[in-house]
Structure formats: structure tokens, C-alpha cells
Amino acid sequence: MKVTIVGAGPAGLYLGILLAKAEQPHQIAVLERNPADATFGWGVVFSDETLSALRDADYASYLDITDTFARWDAIDISYRDTVLRSRGHAFSAIARQQLLAILQRRAAELGVEQRFGTEIEDVAALCAETDLLVGADGVRSVVRQAADETFRPTITPQGGTYIWYGTDLVFDAFRFIFEESEHGLFQVHGYPFDEHASTFIVECPESTWRKAGLDQMSDADSIAFCERLFAAELGGHRLMSNKSSWLRFPLVRNRSWHATVADTPVVLLGDAAHTAHFTIGSGTKLAMEDAVALAAAFVRHGSDSPTAIQAALVHYERERKPVVERFQQAASDSAEYFARVGQHTHLSPPQFAFNLLTRSGRISHANLAQRDADFVRGVDVWFATGATDRAVATPPAFTPLTLRGLRLANRMVGTAPGDAGLVLTPLTAVTPGGRVSPDSPTLCADTDVARLRAANAKGALGVLLGHAGRRGATRPPERGVDVPLPEAEAWPLLAASALPFGPGSQTPRAMTDVALAEVRDAFVAAAGRAVEAGCGLVMLDCGYGYLLASFLSPLTNHRDDDYGGTLDNRLRFPLEVIGAVRTALPDDCPLGVRLTVTDWARGGLTPDDGVTAARACAEAGVDLVHVVAGQTVAESTPEYRRGYLNTLSDQVRNGARVPTMVGGHLTTVDAINTVLAAGRADLCVAEFLHDPAALTAGRAA
Amino acid sequence: MEIGVGLPNTTPGATGALLTEWARRADAGPFGSLAVLDRPVYDSVEPFAALSAAAAVTERVQLATMIAIGPLRPAAVLAKQAEAVHRLADGRFTLGLGIGARRDDYTASGTDHTRRGALLSEQLAHLRGNDYPGEVLVGGNSGPAFARMARYADGYAHGGGPPRAFASAATKAHAAWRDLGRPGTPRLWAQGYFALGDDDTVQAGRDYLRDYYAFTGPFAETIASANLTTGRAIKDFVRGYAAEGCDMLVLLPTVSAVDQIDRLAEVIG
Predict the structure, then answer these.
(1) A300 at the B interface (CB within 8 A)?
(2) Which of A156, A207, A533, A700 is within CB 3.0–4.6 Å of A452 for a Cys-Cys bond?
(3) CATH class of A2-338
(4) Does the annotation count A162 as an active-site position?
(5) What pLDDT does A626 receive?
(6) Dihedral sign for Cα atoms in the order A538, A539, A540, A541
(7) B245 contact A CB<8A
(8) Are A311 and B225 within 8 A, CB to CB?
């Protein structure tokens, strides 16, 4: 097969090498617009896993690559005048220029034709002369453009603004440096790549970058600014530019990775096909793994007919796409973390470091403990005692928590008595008209108090008080929720505005001033009964589109009085209820609120609104915010996965500086330990408390 | 996990005789369910009609739509069709619903494609509001689809792919179920394509999938290449799905020949 590869980066050259080694000889040409010795960027990082793939794929180049490697196993986090070191992270790096030189040499040795300084103008013409065209020509791939309609690429800016410098300071580990400036927080991602130099990437939010005037500075001034900012770390060493400029990272995705141009198959490799944010350092790794997978697909399917080539391309895409998408998800989480890490600067160094190391969701408390048991023990001890000088501590999930006069034995919240530190009732209506379904619990009569007291046999009990609002008068949830009761069995509904919830839902009445006062008083009365019944915590529901939440969202609140319009106005009624209940509660009884912090719907509450609302709740005397999202309107766009509310809880806890509780499909003790140790929440809804094995495993951890 | 088999109602050239004979063999074989697809703008037998015929010649096997494109029918008509099959099969009917993937199905039925999600929600609300008695599944891979499933359905119908794709969807289904406050767990149904036999049979299966999914562009090749064409591939696939918590895995034929169900029964029996 005649193969033309456009782009002599690591992906293109490595594919050339692997195809040249195939049993069936291929005729391979690599075309590159730049000269052979042009260099962009400084060092590139590989994990052990990637290295073993490279060893299996081509041993000769593997030896050359590993010969020049800088290796380390530690990550240093320089933050607030301390440096925390976490070990057990096996990484290697190599200068990109060095890597390319090795691959060029090896490709030449195997008879791969390499044409440098060759600009591609006509992709269709190239196609006419080859059996397979490979687009390994990077983010702005020319090859990709020739079949845009099939590849359907999207390029989206992601994360903060960054610049890729080098330095003659040789780090002995991967080093994160966080430096507060008068304009905001800057961070550095630094790592050594040979015995003389390190990569030194400076990153900050775009707003900080503008405030600092970096958008107006010359290259020399930019370097001088960064050298000044990181003077203490650099200790006299200098930063070096290599056509470096400030950028936003381009996230590349393609719907398809292969296409046909002028009857010739075309396939994308590396950055042309996909990128993953640099903060997880996987670009070169993914590119070279693409080459390995594509070469292997030709071994499997052959290349002697158009059908075989087609089958190999399908196979390659099927195998690589899910892997790449997992990395892109982790990379997005990492990019978002660094974009808002400025909110974390109040965290103590152990928690700050743990949050950083677990930012992309790929490493949990247990994974980290495997890599560096001492580091995790230190975090656990700090979490349990606030000190760092004790030898052992229980895992975070089993650490007590005190809220005002309530001491919880552990950090897990459940719905039934047993192992949970806090048992929380289902939504309990403050008036009969506030029930979700006919059999929903209420707390509006003395008989309700007796029932609740009976349930309160063991441990701490919290009551979730609410009013279903426009989501009331529905059938029991066994066969679905939000299904209205038959008209004869329904009762009239109340909401901020007269808007029905979903298909077939009753239209609620917009609340009058009288109704507002009645509902507020009902909340106060119910809270009093909860205390009487021995509840240790009262939580008010302002979530999921129920009554109080219907005031919060612009999608459900169309009022033109003092309770509608601006976010301040929309918060007014929930805050009145919170204030009245707080006043009525004994001082030692903590007050929580279940709060929707984003609607997951166009025109609805955003996470920023949610943080503002949480801050207002805290100022009104709320001790704990249970972070939830969505269900404000029936048709919204949630993104479910394990821990899908963790990031929102992190934003609320560290943005509004209020203790949070979070659920979001946390299915193991390890997941909860990770959330707690990272300071993303203070309490977690545990979805496994019915499973004794999961708990035992968690305790042992 | 139970294993179901598809009725070949969308493979070219399927006759009434083939469909009823296939249904009889499914009923006699090691299958927990017999499922149909829905695709108006294609050489196919309408799913509720096909299942009505199957109901008449079976006594045991659970009949299912996997899935029917709900919004193509007015809510009341869909409910009537579903109730009909439910009654004809004496309750052995699972109604799987989704929004489908092809715009031309919407054009042909005069349905507003831009409202497809909302329409499906309205239909589900209609079924539930009128006490539709049978099991209801909802398919789809988007956040709104999972929320809709958890709000109204008894379980989730996965659209196909390797076991790890199913695993990721199952996690989302469980998370949505919890989020909407449903008691218990959702039933999880899934599907895969097969063709068993000589090279010509395998080629015919592949050609069918290429044609059936031609509207997806290059993705058709991916689906065609995932067709299960050996006993070993089917066993691996079954094992993978069982390990990820699937309750019912339906294997759909790609060739209109009755020997296909016998060969499948042999592999899994």
C-alpha cells in the first residue's frame, strides 16, 4: 500500500516507522511544511503505561527515547510558602526536539521518505497518487479541511490563558506553583525534560491575564513579568521563549476520524483528530498511541484491497475513540479546575494539594493511597484533627462532623437508620397542600410529631421540610413521577407563578401576599414540631423546582412584584422563610437548605447564580447547603455520571464558603473519601448503605 | 440476565410466513423476549402489526418494541396500539419508546422533528395518566432522555454498542433514577446485531446494516463491522453485557432467514 502522511510530528513519524516495519512492505512518504529542525514547545510527558506500548511497538526507538529521558516519581505542589510532595507518580519526559530527531532517524533507517518544507496545497491531488492519506498535521489540519463535511470537526477554546516557556532551572519532580498576584492567581506547570532544562507553562484565567495587562505586552515584557512573579521559585534562573505566545487551549473533536476524498481513504491521527487539555499532559501520548492502534489495525485487516483498508480504519476509530473521549472528559475536568482554582486559596495546603491531585476524576483517595500511603495518611490526619502530627486517622467518610450543637458520627447521609451519620427524611410537607403525593409525609399536626419521634430511635435525624409547589398532587412514584393525580383526587397547587410543570400538570395559582405569609408560618410551625420530635437538624427544601425553588429560577418566576425579577428579588421569599425558621429554632439546632444551584436549562439559573444564592443563604443563617441541580423545569439537560454534582458542590463550598452536602451517584466509600478530603463537600449522600460489604471495604481502607 | 431475539420485521423481504414461523421458534426456544424495530421509511413491517401477529402464535415469550418511535403517532393512537398488543398477548408486552434517529421518518409522518423530545414526554405522561398497564422502557443517550426515562418509565432501552458503552449508559440510568426519586432500580434492556452462517450470510448481514444505517454516514461502517458473526463473538458479547448488569439482551437478526434463529438458539441454548 502506498501511504502518504501529512505532518512529521510524533504521530505521523511513528506511524511511518510502524508501517515501514510491517511484514507487507508499504511505500511511505511523510510530508512536513516546516524544516526538519524546526522546534515548537519544550518537553513532552509520558506515563509508564505509554512507555510499555512504545516498547512493544518499536523496541529500537524505545531504547533511544528512554536513554534521553528525564524521570521522576513525585509531584511537588508549591502553595502558600509550603511545598507538599506526593510520590508514586511514575512519569518520564523528553525534549520534543529530541523525540522528533530520534523518530526522524529511525524512520530514515527504515526507508521512510521524509520531505520537509513541503506545503500542502491540494489535498485531492495528493489523494489521487496514494492508497491512503493520513492527516497527522495537527490542530489546524489541512487534510481535515478537505473532508470537513464528513469529519465534522469542532474547535472550542478551553480553560485559562497560558504560555509555554522553558527554563534552565532543572526541577527534580513535576512542579505545580501557585502564586497570588495583585491581579489574581497564576499557576505554573513545570517539569524537567533533560539535564539542562524544564518546561515552564504559566497559566491564569483570561480575566486575570487582561487585568495584568499581559494582552498588551511585548514578548520580552511578558517574560519579564513572569520572571518577576516567580522570582522566588526561579532563584535567578531565566525563562526562555520559543516562539511562545499566550493562547487558549483549542479542544478539537471530530465526529468521524476517517473519510473518503476523491475515492481515496483519509484518516486523522493525533491533534488533527482530537486534543486533550495540556493540564493532563496527554497530547503526545494519545498521538503515538493512535499510530500504534492504526498500524495494528492494518496487521489485523490487511491492506491489499480498498475493503481491507476501510475495515482497518473503522477498527482504528472504534478502538481509539472511547479511550480518547475518556481522556477528553478528564482533561475538561482538569481544565475547569485550573480555571477556577483561585477559589481554593482558602484551603489548607493538605486539602488544596489533595483537591489538585484528584481534579480530573481519574485518581481517587484509594488510588492515591496506593501510590503514596504517607501522603494520604497525612491528609486523613489533617482532615480528622486539623493537625498533621498524629500517626493515624480514620478515613474522611468515618470522621465526625459538628454543626452547631449537632455531632454527627460520620460524614455519610442515608435515608434509613443504621450506618449513616445523618438520617434525612424524605421531603416532608409543611401543609397538606404541599404534599407531592397523597402518601407523602407531613409535619403539620401533633400526630405527625409522634410518628417522627418514633422514627428517631437511633443516631442523628434530620428532617427535610418543604412544599411541593407546582410539582404537587401527583401519583405515588412507583410507576413514574410528576404524573398528576386524577382531577377528583387532586388538590389546588401554589407556585411563584401560574405555570404548569409538565405535560398534563395542573396550573398552580401564583401566590398572593396572604399565601406567602401562610406558607412561611407553616415552615416555622413545622420546624418547631421537628425540634419537638427530637430532630437534630432542620433542612428546608429550595430545590428541584418545588415551591421555594420556583421563586429562585427565572424560568418559573415571572412575578412583577418584589418577589420577582432580579436574583435578589427571586431570593427574597426563600430568604424570608429561612430567616423566620432560623429565628424560631434553638441556637444549637443547625439549619440546612437543599438548594438548586443550576437549572441545566437555557435561560435558567447558572452555577454563578447558585453560588450567589448559597452565599445569601449562609448570610441568613444557613449552616449547610445540600447542593442539587435541575428538575426546575421538566425538559432540562442534566449530565449524569458518577459524582455528577461534585464540581458544583466544590464551586458552592469554596465560592460561597459554606459547608455543603452532596449526592450525585456516589456509590463507594472511596468516592466519598475523595470528595471529602478534597474539600468538595462536608457531607455526602451515600447510595450504598444497604450494602454491608461496601461499608466494610470502606472502613478497612 | 435473559436473552431475547429480534423479529426480522425490518430486514428486507420478510414475509408474514417467516415472521410467524420465527415467532413460534422464539416461543419454543431459549429466549426471554421477542422484539421489533420501528422504521417507517424503510422496507419493513409496522412494529405493532408484527407483534400482533406474533402474539397470535406465541404463548410464553415477552413481546417488545426495541424501540418504537413514539412521536410518529399521536399519543392516544400510540396508547391504543400498545394496549391492543398488551391485550392480544395477554399482558406479555414491553413497550420500548424513543425518539428515533431519522428525520425522514418525521417528515413522512408529518411530525415536528424539533419537538420530538417534548412529544415523547407528552406521550409518556398520557400513558401514565391513563393507567397504561404494561412495562414501559425509554431509550436514548442524552441527558434529557435519561431524565425522561427516570420520570416516566420502568426501565431503560440501550441502543447498542460494546459492553463498556452499555456500562456507561447503565450508570447514567441508575443516577437519573435516583435523581428523580424513583424507588428500586430501573430495568435495563440492551441489544446487538447478529448474522450466523456462511460467508454470503455474513456479507448479507453486513450489507443490510450498511444500508439500514446509511443515514449516519461513516458510522454505518462501524455498526456493520460490529455485527456478531460467530458463536464466540456472541458468547463474549453476552458475557460482557451480563457483567455490566443488563437484565435483557436482545439479539437482532440482520438476515431474513428462519435458520438464523435456530443457529442463535444453538449458540446460546
Answers:
(1) no
(2) A533
(3) alpha beta
(4) no
(5) 98
(6) negative
(7) no
(8) yes
Q: Which of A544, A546, A640, A644 is catalytic?
A: A546
Among the CATH numbers 3.20.20.70, 3.30.70.120, 1.10.3720.10, 3.30.70.330, which is that of A376-700? 3.20.20.70
Q: What percent of chain B has pLDDT over 70?
A: 100
- To the nearest 5 percent, what fractions of chain B are helix, strand and coil? 50, 15, 30
* Domain range annotation of chain A: 2-338, 376-700
Q: By CB neighbour count within 10 A (0-12 exposed, 13-18 middle, 19+ buried), where does B74 fall?
A: middle
Where do runs of H (alpha helix) occur along A196-282? Answer: 206-211, 219-229, 231-234
pLDDT (tens digit per residue) in B49-75: 999 999 999 999 999 999 999 999 999
Nearest to A687 among B172, B178, B226 (CB): B178
For the stretch A296-342, pLDDT in tens is 999 999 999 998 999 999 999 999 999 999 999 999 999 999 999 99
Q: Which amino acid is at A154?
A: T
CB contact under 8 A, B175 and A640: yes
Considering only CB atoms, A636 lies closest to which of B147, B153, B178, namely B147
Q: How far is CA A120 from the centre of its chain?
A: 38
Nearest alpha-carbon partner for A593 in A570, A575, A568 = A575
Q: A60 with A38: CB under 8 angstroms?
A: no
Q: Do A638 and B124 touch (CB under 8 A)?
A: no
Instruction: Provide, as residue numbers in chain A, all residues whose Cβ is less than 8 Å from the Cβ of B222.
Output: 314, 317-318
Q: Tens place of pLDDT for every residue, chain B, 269 residues?
A: 999 999 999 998 899 999 999 999 999 999 999 999 999 999 999 999 999 999 999 999 999 999 999 999 999 999 999 999 999 999 999 999 999 989 999 999 999 999 999 999 999 999 999 999 999 999 999 999 999 999 999 999 999 999 999 999 999 999 999 999 999 999 999 999 999 999 999 999 999 999 999 988 878 888 999 999 999 999 999 999 999 999 999 999 999 999 999 999 999 98
User: What integer pLDDT is reported at residue A695 of this predicted model?
Assistant: 67
Helix (H, G, I), strand (E, B) or coil at A38: coil
Q: Closest partner residue to B144 among A477, A635, A664, by Cβ? A: A635
Q: A529-543 pLDDT, tens per residue?
A: 999 999 999 999 999
Residue A701 has pLDDT above 80, yes or no: no
B107 interfaces chain A, CB cutoff of 8 Å:
no
Q: Residue A699: which pLDDT band, with cuts at 50, 70 and 90?
A: low
B226 lies within 8 A of chain A by CB: yes
Axis crossing angle, helix A349-357 with helix A373-385, rounded to the nearest 10:
130
Given an 8 Å threshold on Cβ–Cβ distance, is A663 in contact with B178? yes
What dotted CATH number matches B2-268? 3.20.20.30
A chain contacts of residue B174, beta-carbon cutoff 8 Å? 665
- The pLDDT value recorded for residue A588 is 96
Q: Is A644–B175 a contact, with Cβ atoms under 8 angstroms apart? A: yes
- Do B165 and A484 count as a contact with CB atoms less than 8 A apart? no
Q: Residue ranges of the domains in chain B? A: 2-268
Q: Which residues contact A508 (CB under 8 A, 6 or more apart)?
A: A469, A470, A492, A493, A494, A495, A498, A499, A500
Distance in angstroms (rounded) separating the CA atoms of residues B268 and B261: 11
**pLDDT tens digits, residue range A653-673?**
999 999 999 999 999 999 999
